[in-house]
Design a protein that fits this description.
heterodimer; A: about 500 residues; alpha/beta; 6-stranded mixed sheet; 17 helices; 25 strands; B: about 350 residues; ABC transporter involved in vitamin B12 uptake, BtuC; 16 helices; 3 strands; binds adenosine-5'-triphosphate; binds magnesium ion
Chain lengths: ~500, ~350
């Protein structure tokens, strides 16, 4: 499976002793890596280890404090354009698309084909179509990107990188938003591109992917390169240990204590765009999972339930202490103790230019203010407590959220809602992009709030996660629930077969 | 290459599905609806507006030309409040120079320089464009007063001004002609030129634009220079037609131009909108103003109408509509809450 090093071509890209700090905090500390043509180079590390920062330096978006980037042994000039012309292309961790522009325009953003300054649309569409064909994805070239699903946007982002005909292609956690099938597809694509002589750098928190795909793995911890070696010389658990730098108590898997109580959330006959007559009930202390492929309508369903999107039919009630209320708008839902952690956090869930503390304060305004004024000490205390609880690194609540790494931003969104002791919480892909340690921590938190009596509805494309957390799983396909599995019935196989519509194999 | 991942949901749409997608992509819908409503009402109540089309066209051109320049900036999510003062200043500059052609060139250069200064403050110094151009609004107005010695400056070449007001062919006065040319130029620039199309990226997701290697600062400079240049053109037209340059000119144009851009579906946050939309917005406001004037409605009352139209345009935005529906549901649900069920 893994090819010997001698089979690779010459070194294409070298990062030599790169150091990059942000206002005193060193994000990347004297890191050197080199990648050969045809090699798939895995890069792993905890949230905030400096992976994205290093890649942004390679792509010329950030200029390093020290060190240099070389392609074919020649130093690359500073700036994103120079990096692109040197053949370096980056698929960003956070989607970096313009929602109001079309798929074709986004694929060629910044490098429209022109004749005397005028865009040649025929050519533009042709190049975009070729890039999509190269990665084998069919999507309407003229659709506005804002109307695409998150997974599709991810592929548009990849098509954009491929359209530059790069020699060095960097993927910063591309699979975080993808289903298993899409991930397999992507990994096969990577191998094909590498076989064609490209050098590929691949970042992922999913260790099995690294082992199935990469030939070399580099481990970053606190900005330093702790190891870079051939994948054969390491085992998955060694990689995890070196990432974390300590023994990881992965048997964090806590036992649930509460037994589900009365029905808290009752959604009947929900119909909305992409959702067809779905009913869901969640009891207090119960975790209900929604499984299915990306695009099955799960996010749309939960958004319709809490009133964030319009529904064309159906009713939703929330019962607490014998009092039942109808949920109409999202505002009323939030006021009545509903919490929602959306799928696209950067867009829906966070104010990036505000501090962690202020972000945590947003949904907790009432609790954390006196007569409408923010009470500093109280906010700080609560925010700190919550930040510690979700394992924010570094746990500095005064920092702007935008300065945190992708995985850590995730934790801020969670912290923000956990503070409320919600009656009903919806988590849409809660651990996407979160590292192994933090993921276990978040799982523990979710179970904990369920044990405290909160009704939890969770959407996850991560099958092991869905299976571990859920008491009941509804599997969706094309806007319908195709099956409901109890904890005993649920297995990767039973969920996948319901999700993909292939023969249903009941394991019980 | 062998395998194709079919993820698209827009694939098997029929003709209507496709048409729906295309229409859904446009931003001018509300502008067109409003314009049609206004046209129908005016046709029924004040048909004179159409027989006096030269007046109407002139009015639309007056509002529209500044609005078109503004749109270039608005598309990038920035504002340019200084246009009103630029208009006055460039007029005064032109009138202060005896040789007409030199004066016109100097006025246009003034507009470009103002644009450069605005862009410098916004993209190099990093001041919010509202504040930066508000500062310029005051400073340039002051400068116009200083240059003109606080009084309107008469053109030396009055004949040129008088002949400038004459129609060329039919109802097309030079003002209307220039307006049409400016519209065509900016429309082509924004929809066809690479730089213009990138305005949408700068406004829609500035970080993405930077990441993609788009020279964001240069685009912002271009945008402000367009808006300054067009404002200067408007100043020249104004002064020529009146044969004097008034340092107080243009103060009402600013807000009307903004209103036209907004009614035309341009998002102030940037990234979404169109030049055609602005044209439609200007047409709607122009027709309305002329109709109200002909019916003898006082200017302050006219402003109430404009305000109302603006609010209608913004609140019929699909997003705003959704939040209104949400609020109504919340109200109803507040009542439902009192009747406790078990
Ligand atoms: N623009 C910035 N300003 C200040 N600090 C930053 C900035 N960008 C990153 N950092 C800091 O640099 C460190 C490394 O962040 P980076 O995004 O590279 O981590 P990462 O390894 O990609 O993590 P993740 O797995 O969560 O994506 C973090 O401590 C982060 O807070
Ligand atoms: Mg990262």
């Amino acid at each position: 499976m893994v090819t010997a090093e001698s089979e690779f071509g010459p070194v294409l890209i070298e990062a030599d002793a790169i150091t990059k700090s942000f206002g005193g905090a060193v994000a990347v500390d004297n890191v050197s890596i080199s990648v050969r043509a045809g090699e798939i180079y895995g890069l792993v590390g905890e949230n905030g280890a400096g992976k994205s920062t290093l890649m942004r330096v390679l792509a010329g978006i950030l200029s390093p404090d020290q060190g240099e980037v070389r392609v074919d042994g020649k130093p690359v000039q500073p700036g994103a354009r120079a990096a692109i012309s040197a053949g370096i292309s980056l698929v960003h961790q956070e989607l970096s698309l313009v929602p109001e522009m079309t798929v074709a325009e986004n694929i060629l953003l910044g490098s429209f084909p022109t004749k005397v300054g005028f865009t040649e649309y025929r050519k533009l569409r042709q190049i975009a179509a070729d890039a999509l064909a190269e990665i084998g994805v069919g999507v309407d070239l003229d659709e506005r990107v804002g109307r695409l699903s998150v997974a599709l946007r991810q592929f548009v982002e990849i098509a954009r990188a491929v359209a530059k005909k790069p020699r060095i292609l960097i993927f910063d956690e591309p699979t975080a938003t993808l289903t298993p099938a899409e991930t397999d597809y992507l990994l096969a694509m990577l191998r094909r591109l590498a076989d064609g002589g490209m050098a590929i750098i691949y970042i992922s928190h999913r260790i099995p992917e690294i082992f199935s795909t990469c030939s070399t793995v580099a481990i970053l911890r606190d900005g330093k390169l702790v190891r870079s070696s051939s994948i054969d010389s390491l085992t998955p658990s060694q990689v995890v240990d070196q990432m974390v730098g300590r023994e990881l108590g992965l048997d964090l898997a806590t036992k649930r204590t509460a037994t589900p109580g009365a029905v808290v959330l009752d959604a009947q006959g929900i119909t909305a765009p992409k959702v067809n007559n779905v009913s869901v009930q969640v009891r207090s202390g119960e975790i209900v999972g929604l499984g299915g492929l990306v695009g099955a309508g799960r996010s749309e369903l939960v958004r319709a339930i809490i009133g964030a999107d319009d529904r064309t039919a159906g009713s939703v009630t929330l019962t607490h202490n014998g009092e039942t209320i109808t949920i109409g708008s999202y505002q009323s839902a939030v006021r009545n103790g509903v919490a929602y952690v959306p799928e696209e956090r950067r867009i829906d869930g966070l104010a990036l230019s505000m501090s962690v503390e202020d972000n945590i304060r947003l949904p907790n305004r009432k609790e954390l203010s006196v007569a409408g004024f923010k009470v500093g000490s109280k906010t700080a205390q609560v925010a700190q407590l919550l930040a510690d609880k979700v394992g924010l690194r570094p746990p500095e609540i005064r920092r702007d959220v935008g300065e945190y790494s992708g995985g850590n931003q995730q934790k801020v969104v969670l912290a923000k809602w956990l503070g409320r002791r919600p009656k009903f919480i919806v988590l849409d892909e809660p651990t996407r992009g979160v590292d192994v340690g933090a993921k276990a921590e978040i799982h523990r938190l979710v179970k904990e709030i369920a044990d405290q009596g909160t009704a939890v509805l969770i959407v996850s494309s991560d099958l092991p996660e869905l299976l571990e957390l859920s008491d009941t799983i509804h599997v969706m396909r094309d806007g319908h629930v195709t099956g409901t599995l109890s904890k005993e019935e649920a297995s990767e196989k039973s969920v996948m077969s319901l999700a993909s519509g292939e023969t249903i194999v009941r394991s019980s | 290459m062998s395998q194709i991942l079919e993820l698209s949901d827009a694939k098997s749409k029929g003709f209507f599905g496709r048409a729906g997608t295309v229409i859904g992509r446009r931003t001018e819908g509300r502008g067109i609806a409003l314009l049609s409503v206004i046209l129908v009402i005016v046709a029924l109540t004040e048909p004179l507006v159409f027989s006096a089309y030269s007046v109407t066209l002139g009015r639309i051109a007056l509002i529209g030309i500044v609005a078109l320049g503004l749109t270039a900036v608005i598309l990038m999510g920035e504002l340019d409040l200084s246009v009103a003062s630029t208009l006055a200043l460039s007029g005064v500059v032109m009138a202060s120079i005896p040789e007409l052609w030199l004066g016109i060139l100097a006025a246009l250069a003034t507009g470009l320089i103002v644009g450069l200064i605005n862009a410098f403050f916004v993209s190099v110094v990093g001041i919010n464009s509202f504040i930066a151009t508000l500062g310029m609004l005051f400073a340039l107005r002051g400068l116009a007063f200083v240059i003109s010695d606080e009084a309107p400056v008469s053109l030396v070449n009055k004949e040129a001004g008088i002949s400038f007001g004459e129609p060329l062919i039919g109802p097309i006065t030079p003002r209307v002609l220039i307006f049409i040319l400016v519209f065509i130029a900016i429309q082509i620039f924004v929809s066809k030129a690479q730089a213009g199309r990138e305005f949408f990226a700068v406004g829609g997701n500035r970080q993405a634009a930077r990441d993609a290697g788009i020279p964001v600062t240069r685009r912002i400079v271009t945008g402000f220079m367009i808006s300054g240049f067009v404002a200067a053109l408007a100043g020249i037209i104004n002064s020529l037609e009146r044969t004097t340059a008034d340092p107080t000119a243009g103060s009402t144009v600013l807000l009307t131009a903004f209103a036209a851009a907004i009614i035309g579906g341009n998002y102030l946050k940037g990234g979404r909108g169109s030049i055609v939309g602005t044209l439609i917005g200007a047409a709607a406001l122009g027709v309305l103003q002329v109709a109200l004037t002909i019916s003898g409605v006082q200017v302050p009352v006219q402003q109430i109408f404009i305000g109302a139209i603006l609010l209608i345009a913004v609140t019929t935005d699909p997003n705003s509509l959704r939040s209104v529906r949400g609020s109504i549901r919340t109200l109803r649900q507040g009542r439902a809450k009192n009747s406790v069920t078990t």
